[in-house]
Design a protein that fits this description.
The protein is mainly alpha-helical. Helix content is 70%, strand content 2%. The protein has helices spanning 3-10, 14-22, 41-56, 61-71, 78-90, 102-115, 124-138, 145-167, 172-207; strands at 30-31, 37-38. Strands 1-2 form a two-stranded antiparallel sheet. It is elongated.
């Protein structure tokens, strides 16, 4: 397809497509003579992935490059790509505040132990969760363990859904793409559904 058709199908302006190519986010199309360049469905999929990371995930161009480099690494295990994507896609969730306190990190580690989670020491989620615990405590609302345990159960359920969807795809390339898109959009989906559930539970308790 020509760039005009690619722009229409992907909902991306032609100038933006050319910018992504210059920045190395999108592979160049095939030159077929003159100013004609052909693109295919792989370019359309990559454009949708780039836009999801930039517009929904709010990543920088540099972070998108990092994720795409991992995505394009030949023979890289899925767990490696998932780790790179998690790190890049979670940076914006880390509050621009002081490092988490040792006490908060210890509580997160204890929570992980109670949940039976191992190998989480280097996961960026550990710092994110600890910073949130500090923020709650600083606001005068320290979170009890049973509250955290219930959140861990919900998080495990979400993770099972995420990885179940990925595992259901037939080829590794599509699995990796869904893993990246799901990490970006899943956080937003979780936020929206949580807001809805809070409203429902609030109404139920008010009327009961």
């Amino acid at each position: 397809m020509l760039i005009s058709e690619l722009a229409e199908r992907s909902g991306t302006p032609t100038a933006t497509i050319k910018y992504y190519v210059r920045e190395g986010l999108l592979p160049a199309g095939e030159r077929v003579g003159g100013n004609r360049t052909l693109y295919d469905e792989s370019h359309e999929r990559r454009l949708r992935l780039i836009r999801a990371m930039l517009e929904v995930g709010k990543l920088s161009i540099a972070s998108v490059k990092t994720v795409l480099s991992a995505l394009d690494e030949p023979d890289a295990p899925l767990v490696h790509t998932f780790d790179v994507a998690q790190q890049a896609l979670s940076r914006s969730a880390v509050p621009d505040v002081a490092e988490p306190t040792p006490e908060a990190l210890a509580r997160v580690d204890a929570l992980a132990a109670r949940a039976g989670w191992s190998d989480c020491d280097d996961n960026i989620g550990r710092d994110i969760a600890a910073q949130v615990l500090d923020a709650f405590a600083n606001a005068g609302f320290p979170l009890p363990d049973d509250y955290l345990d219930r959140y861990a159960v919900a998080a495990r359920t979400q993770a099972e859904a995420d990885l179940g969807a990925v595992a259901g795809l037939p080829d590794a390339s599509r699995m990796t793409e869904l893993m990246v898109v799901g990490t970006v959009l899943g956080d937003t989906l979780s936020l929206g559904l949580r807001r809805m559930a809070q409203a429902v539970v609030s109404n139920e308790r008010r009327t009961s």
